[in-house]
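Structure ticket #2291
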Amino acid sequence: MAGISHLDQLLAGMKPELQEGAYVFLTFPPGVQPALPTATVARIQEPEGLTAVVPLSWANANNYPYEFVAAWILLRIHSDLAAVGLTAVVSTALAKVGISCNVIAGFYHDHLFVPEAQAQKAMVALLRVTEHQ
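Resolution: structure written out below.
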């Protein structure tokens, strides 16, 4: 099933949803394939090694070092992978209120990782975007 590609529809219907818990980005050197939890949100293979987004609680329980603790915001709209502008509008709205954002696109949804301490402020900013469509 194809996703939505029209920007106005994406913004009006993105329905940001704050997920429970805190998440961290872990990195592993090339060739290392760690046993990650089933709750792993993403695995990204880069030239420098593997990046994994995992629950903070799992990283702490397994003594993995991390630098960035994030809240996960799921955009509920089924966005087309070829849609143009959604990431730009969302990241600009967050940047205007001083919030960094790391975006990962899944087949159905976009996933935003913002500093945990700014999660509620991010939600307010994103809801404002949907209200102005």
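Closing remark: The chain has a mean pLDDT of 95.
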